[in-house]
């Protein structure tokens, strides 16, 4: 069996994943805006041997019929948040080996400035940075906040392709990897290795010099998570690690196959793209204890959250439909995955499911041994390369996983001890060097290759 990689899903806000668990007595996530919270999470991840910490992010908010429901503030459902780049910089200073993956939107970021922020994190962390490329599912409200026009679902991916072409030029082509000599008797940088770049795409343009030199990994490790047909095509072209939202082994296996096929269509090696499924777990000394702990989490939540929360991901007000309406009859220009994942279910069934776990997959409940078995079976049957732990409460979920489940996976040879590779790409993608593989489209922009 493959050796798996493990990351933690985090979010710099009081709740995540469309649920409102902040009221639970053991959940410390309501302290997300304090450095102490992140110190504790970072230490738990690094000492526990997780490969990376992922910071999800969104810009929009929830709206039902043009209004932000009051419950959003009462339960801190969507806002307030902190900037994941700043949180990542703070965590980086507390850690030496942990990988850090930050979310950045190709709809809302300005590519020239964004490339410098990414390169800065990669320099300062010595190559521990990844970028979760998102087109922003909460596009409608976010676009209004930024004063830009709304862009439809597939067109956002076209825009993202253009964004990627420009940032590849900045990451890979503006400065050669050995441009900085820092020779006090000679050059700081060799002028022959600093290149003017030019980009005139359908959405973005740039003419001039990159603001940051080549960072340890050049391009940050590229993560992506869209599972719509257009999202898969984008992920197959650009993604090095793809997050999946979880689900049955059959559904995951189908998604893994489709994304690997998309990678091949883009001229890439199918095995070079790493598929990681989100999962949640509640560990108990017995199965009964795990169920009891999980019920406590459900009972701590306000059931009225579900309608407002679902609207944030899709713009749809489920309370306005008959409960027997099939989900397959609905359409959104926001996150299409949040309709498709419910298959033949009805609106009423989805409202119940959403209260239990929001966008998170259903939690595995049981002893550490049973959870380790489930992870192994899922990885084997769906050909997965890793998992992303989506916590139910923090830091308890992370601590339970690293202290109880991970050691079992290590003993079975499925998880690793420590972080032998110096950079995140080497650790996750398995490259011999820190930079993009030669079959990745971004590598063709590398300076000196004449493109
Ligand atoms: C594990 C995981 C993490 C995600 N993190 C984010 C995020 O931080 N920000 C965001 O806007 N979307 C996030 N998404 C959503 C996807 O990026 C994508 O927008 C969504 O799946 C809809 O894309 P689609 O319509 O192409 O399927 C995440 C999805 C998954 C499965």
Write a structural description.
- The chain is an alpha/beta fold and 451 residues long.
- The chain has one domain (5-282, 368-445): Luciferase-like domain (TIM Barrel), CATH 3.20.20.30.
- It has helices at residues 35-48, 70-74, 84-94, 111-125, 139-146, 153-173, 229-238, 249-265, 287-299, 305-314, 337-340, 347-357, 368-382, 396-411, 424-428; strands at 5-11, 52-56, 99-105, 129-134, 196-200, 205-209, 221-224, 241-244, 274-279, 281-283, 364-366, 386-389.
- The chain has an eight-stranded parallel barrel with strand order 1-2-3-4-7-8-9-12, surrounded by five helices. A two-stranded antiparallel sheet has the order 5-6. A two-stranded parallel ribbon has the order 10-11.
- The longest helix is centred in the middle third of the chain and has 21 residues, at 153-173.
- The model has no long low-confidence stretch (mean pLDDT 95).
- Flavin mononucleotide (FMN) is lined by residues 56-58, 103, 132, 134, 136-137, 225-228, 231, 243-245, 278, 335-337, 388.
- Belongs to the NtaA/SnaA/DszA monooxygenase family.
- Residues 432-451 are annotated as: Disordered.
- It comes from Pelagibacterium lentulum.
Structural shape: globular
Evaluate the radius of gyration.
22 Å
Which class best fits the helix and strand makeup? Answer: alpha/beta
CATH homology superfamily name: Luciferase-like domain
- The portion of residues forming beta strands comes to 5-15%
* Strand order of the biggest β-sheet: 1-2-3-4-7-8-9-12
| Overall tally of domains | 1
Q: Which CATH architecture?
A: Alpha-Beta Barrel
């Amino acid at each position: 069996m493959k050796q798996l990689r493990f990351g933690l899903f985090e979010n710099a806000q009081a709740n995540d994943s469309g649920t409102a668990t902040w009221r639970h007595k053991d959940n410390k996530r309501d302290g997300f805006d304090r450095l102490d919270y992140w110190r504790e999470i970072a230490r738990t991840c690094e000492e526990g041997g997780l490969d990376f910490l992922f910071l999800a992010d969104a810009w929009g908010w929830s709206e039902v019929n043009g209004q932000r429901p009051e419950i959003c503030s009462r339960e801190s459902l969507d806002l307030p948040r902190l900037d994941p780049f700043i949180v990542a910089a703070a965590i980086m200073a507390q850690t030496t080996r942990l990988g850090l993956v930050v979310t950045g939107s190709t709809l809302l970021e300005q590519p020239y400035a964004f490339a410098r922020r990414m390169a800065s994190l990669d320099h300062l962390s010595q190559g521990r940075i990844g970028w979760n490329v998102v087109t922003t599912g909460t596009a409608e409200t976010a676009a209004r906040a930024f004063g830009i026009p709304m862009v439809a679902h597939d067109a956002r991916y076209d825009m993202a392709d253009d964004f990627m072409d420009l940032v590849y030029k900045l990451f890979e082509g503006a400065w050669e990897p050995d441009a900085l000599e820092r020779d006090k008797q000679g050059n700081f940088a060799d002028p022959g290795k600093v290149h003017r770049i030019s980009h005139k795409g359908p959405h973005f343009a740039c003419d001039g010099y990159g603001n940051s030199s080549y960072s340890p990994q050049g391009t940050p490790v590229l993560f992506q998570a869209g599972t719509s047909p257009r999202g898969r095509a984008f992920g197959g072209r650009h993604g090095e690690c793809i997050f999946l939202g979880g689900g049955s082994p059959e559904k995951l296996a189908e998604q893994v196959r489709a994304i690997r096929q998309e990678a091949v269509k883009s001229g890439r090696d199918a095995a070079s793209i790493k598929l990681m499924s989100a999962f949640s777990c509640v560990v108990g000394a017995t199965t009964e204890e795990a169920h009891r702990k999980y019920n406590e989490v459900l009972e701590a939540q306000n059931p009225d959250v579900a309608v407002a929360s679902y609207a944030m991901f899709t713009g749809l007000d489920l309370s306005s439909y008959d409960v027997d309406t099939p989900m397959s009859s609905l359409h959104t220009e926001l996150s299409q995955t949040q309709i498709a994942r419910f298959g033949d279910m009805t609106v009423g069934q989805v409202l119940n499911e959403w209260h239990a776990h929001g966008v998170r997959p259903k939690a595995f409940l049981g002893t550490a041994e049973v959870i380790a078995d489930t992870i192994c079976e899922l990885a084997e049957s769906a050909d997965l390369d890793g998992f992303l732990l989506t916590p139910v409460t923090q830091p308890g979920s992370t601590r339970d996983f690293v202290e109880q489940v991970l050691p079992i996976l290590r003993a079975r040879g499925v998880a690793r001890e420590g972080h032998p590779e110096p950079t995140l790409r080497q650790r996750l993608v398995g490259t011999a060097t820190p930079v993009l593989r030669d079959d990745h489209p971004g590598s063709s922009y590398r300076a000196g290759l004449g493109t």
